[in-house]
Amino acid sequence: MSSAQSVRQLIHAHPHWGAVQAIYHRLVANGYCAFLAGGCVRDALLGLVAHDLDIATDATPDQIESLFEKTVNVGKSFGVMRVIVDGADIEVATFRTDGDYKDGRRPDSVVFSSPEEDAKRRDFTINALFFDLQSEQVLDFVDGQIDLEQKIIKTVGQARFRFQEDQLRLLRAARFAAQLSFAVEEQTLLAMTEMASAVKNVSGERIRDEMGKLLKSKNVSLGLEVMNQSGLMKVLFPWRQGKTDWSAMGAQELWQNLSLFFREASPPDLAKGLGLLRLSAKDRKAIEESWELWQQPEAFFTKRTGSKLQLLLKSGVDWALQVLLQEKKFVPEIEAVRKQKAAWGDSLPKAFLSGDDVKGLLQGEAIGRCLQEVYWLQLERQLGSREEALLWLKKHLEKGS
To answer: Which residue ranges does the record assign to the Poly A polymerase head domain (predicted)?
Structure first.
C-alpha cells in the first residue's frame, strides 16, 4: 500500500487536481472543513490513479451553492452537489448520517453529521476513507486501511444491515472483487449468500451498469466466481452458473462485453437477460447480431458475397467476426470478405436503383426482393453502372411476366 507521500503525488497528478484545490481553498477560507473521500483515496493508497476526485465537507448544500458560481443539484436532499470549476465536474457531498432505506436504494432521510458518522454509513470499509488535504493524512474510522492491506472486501458494520439498505451493494461486492482482485471477507460473503435473492429488487438499469463495470475489470473471473459463490449468478443469470472463464477479446463497449457474457445463452435466456438489463435498442440489437452469428457461423459464410458485405455494416456482425479472428476460427473466410469490403473504400456504394425505378412495375414484397437482388449484384461487381442495372431490371421484369 502506498505511503502518504505517494498518495499525495497521485492525487496531485490527477487532471482535476487544480479544480479540487480551488474548491478546497474556498471551503476552508469560509470556515468549513473538506476532505477527499471514498474511491479516490482507496485507489491512491493502492497506487492507482482514480477516475474521479470526490470531496466531503461539513458545508451544507445551500452553503455550497452560495460559495460557488456553477453548481448542479444531483441529490441536494441527500447532501450531494456537483461543483463546476474550469470545466471540471467535482462531486461535493456533505457529511451525513442516513435514515431508514425503505426502498432498498436510498435513505428516506439524512442528517448532516461528522466525518466519522459519514464513514460509518458507507458500504465497504475500503470506500470509507478520507484524505485530509491540509495534514495530508488518511482519516480512517473503520479500519479500511487494514482491509486494503489484507486485500479483502468487507462491509462497514453489519453486512446484512448494509445490504438491506441498498441491495445493489450485493453486486458491488462482486464488482470490487473483480476490479481490485480482492477476496470477499467471510461474514460479508455469508450475508451475500443469505440475501442473494434480494438483488432481484434492484432496477435493471443499475444491474446493467454494475455488470458493465464488473466485465471490464482486471479480474473478471474472480468477480464471476464471487457471483457464483454467493448465489447472485443463480438469481440473475442461472444459465451461467459455474462458468467463470473470461477473455475480454479486446472489448471496449458495454454491449461488446455483454455479448461475450451472453454468448452461450439459449434463446430464452438471452431474451430474458437482455430484457432484465434494460439496454438501449441499439445495444440490444448489436448483442443479438453477435449472438446469432456465433451460434451458426457457417451460415454466415455460406451467404452470397453481397449479403455478407451488407451484414458487415452491422456492429454486432463485425464484432462477432473480430472475436472469431482472435480465436483463429474461419480466418481465410473472414479475411476474404473484409478484403472485398475494403476494396469499396470507407463505405459501400450507393445503390444504382431505388424504389422510384420500380414504382408501378412491382408490388409488395417483390419490390424489396428486386432491389436487394440488384444491389447484391452491384456489390459483387456483376453490375458496373446504373445503365447496366436498368437493363438487368428490364430483363428481370420480362422474365417475371
So the answer is: 34-153
Residue 50: its pLDDT value, please?
86
Query: Same structural domain for residues 155 and 225?
Result: yes
Angle made by CA atoms 13, 18, 24, in degrees to the nearest 5 = 115
Residue 136 maps to a domain? yes
**4 and 144 together in one domain:** yes
Taking the C-alpha atoms of residue 266 and residue 291, their distance in angstroms, rounded to an integer, is 10
Give yes or no for a contact between 393 and 374, defined as CB atoms under 8 angstroms apart: yes
Residue 89: closest CA among 139, 31, 16, 152: 16
Please give the grid coordinates belonging to residue 111: 442528517
Residue 188 is part of a domain; what is its CATH number? 1.10.3090.10
Sign of CA dihedral 133, 119, 211, 107: negative
Average pLDDT, the chain: 94
Structural domain boundaries, residue 130 = 1-149
150-192 pLDDT tens trace = 999 999 999 999 999 999 999 999 999 999 999 999 999 999 9
The answer on 25 and 80 residing in a single domain is yes
C-beta contacts of 137-142 below 8 A and 24+ residues apart: 137/4, 138/4, 138/7, 138/41, 138/45, 139/35, 139/115, 141/115, 141/116
> Residue 348 has which C-alpha cell?
459501400
Q: Is the pLDDT of residue 59 over 60?
A: yes
- Overall number of domains in the chain: 4
Neighbours of 123 (CB within 10 A): 20
Q: What is the DSSP string of 121-133?
A: TSSBGGGS-EEET
231 and 279 co-located in one domain:
no
Cell 442495372, residue?
Answer: 389
